[in-house]
Amino acid sequence: MSTTVTPKQPTTAEPASAAGPAAASATFPAAAASAPAAPGAPAASRGQVDISTVRKSFGATEVLKGVSLSVPPGGVTVIVGPSGSGKSTLLRTINHLEKVDGGYITIDGRLVGYQVRGTKLHELREKDILQQRTDIGMVFQNFNLFPHLTALENVAEAPLVALRPGDPRRRTTAEVRARALELLDRVSLKDRADAYPRQLSGGQQQRVAIARALALDPKILLFDEPTSALDPELVNEVLDVIRELATSGTTLIIVTHEMGFARDVADTVVFMDQGQIVESGTPQDIFTNPREERTRSFFSKVIEPAFNI
Amino acid sequence: MSTITAPAVPAADYSDYTLVPARHPWRWVGTVVVALGVAAVAWSLATNPRWEWGVVAQWFTAQSVVSGLVETLKLTAISGVLGFVLGFILALMRLSASPLLVSVSWTFSWIFRSTPLLVQMLLWYNLGYLYEKISLGIPFTDVRFFEVQTTTLISQFAAAVLGLTLNQAAYSAEIIRGGILSVDQGQLEAAAALGIPAWRRSTRIVLPQAMRAILPNAFNEIIGLVKGTSIVYVLAYSELFYTVQVIYNRTQQVLPLLLVATLWYVVITSVLSVFQYYIERHYAKGALRTLPLTPLQKARKFFATHAVTNARSPR
Q1: Where is the ABC transmembrane type-1 domain (chain B) (predicted)?
Q2: Is B2 inside a domain boundary?
């Protein structure tokens, strides 16, 4: 846990404080119950994520069927499950890249993408959503680095343009540059700062993408299958960087197929199937003593017997 | 199994032989034929007196021709810039979520792409016949802030610019839209996830990448526009082509004077092609692992390496 967190000035109404605890609990009993951080000082917690009965459909297919999940600040949560189970969609709802059809998500007690007005949740304006996203870093399966910008420019872009005047994270151009180099150093790519993404290997590109996600000093980092597009021999260099982040106190939520890695770093493993959370628990619980038959059959297919001692 | 049981013949040793590349006799025949053809064309251009190169040279830099040239460049520049600006707006409208904006943009492109430019040009020039006065006021009331005779507002120049601009906008809208669509959706997602504001997202992330797809087509359009301006002769506007026509109607030296205009168009197009090369190279940054050398760099490298070998060879 970082101890030098400055309390962020809320720019939009927080559900609990704006409507008052009484009103909030009257309208949203679940919100008060599942957001224990809200009544206390939000400054104390950093990166508590509460997902409450989130539903999402694409056309006729319901990909999230009322998913609820609570992620403690500073924890490492790994979401596993077969493809099409809704893992990535769930992850993308956390920074409002995917709009929910029902339910809601709070970060440190504050609604993501919406604000309370009367008895309704109104979607925020794009500007405010963008501002919320500066607290949530995201790393994509296909890296999505900006190909026409160098590694350094990729990392420095958001801190230069995404923060509002008055944001305590605002820095001068020179400071942003220095910090970007520092971050590239942290992922062992300082010497490639002036390289364009296409001049880097897949593993290097993903490490730059991680540095880019860290550049705004986010409370939460989302990883959407960060090693799935990599050659096997490049997977570990990326996992090592994530492993190092796991001890930094930032909340990490990782969707991955790397079961060995999940067992190593996760505080909580969540198993999803067909748009629902089947079960969640410590890696020990989930990998060795799964309660559900569905979990057991999934792991028997994906974990090699030799590995599963 | 026979391949394994056939070690009877000892492997031959070819290490002392010289390698000879395959010969391509027909490639040589083709080269000779084409070379003869090129020589014949060049010879006829140089020796046929009816080309009247002397007349071409005399008129090439004549003051009237040069001022016609300036008008052509002016029309190209103004309608090119305005056309692409309007085209950009139309492209954004077409990509917007509002059905009204989408259909207005679509209809604009539909109309201006389906009517001949010549007709559009004459229509704009004769706008005074359709609408005697043009006024600015509050619609559906009698309030007028400003009113003017259409014929004084729509000069030949204004009609030419209007016609070329609107026509150009219809085409460039599609080119720009295509460029924007060619940018991977993941780029927008990554930018949105980082909280990069919408305007910055368009100008810094999407457009520079879209430019790779836009530029070759855009230069096609600009080069087309340079020559397209010659259509303005129907308005008796004295750009390059009209000027040349006026001269040959007087002197009866039709072909040499058309050649003068043609040569100028070739010069403009050539200059634009050089610009195109360097602008495309600029936007190729990051798209290629290493940028190819420019012709200038190639030449320098050629002389540098050859200078080195020459310096070493006497030894």
Answers
A1: 69-276
A2: no
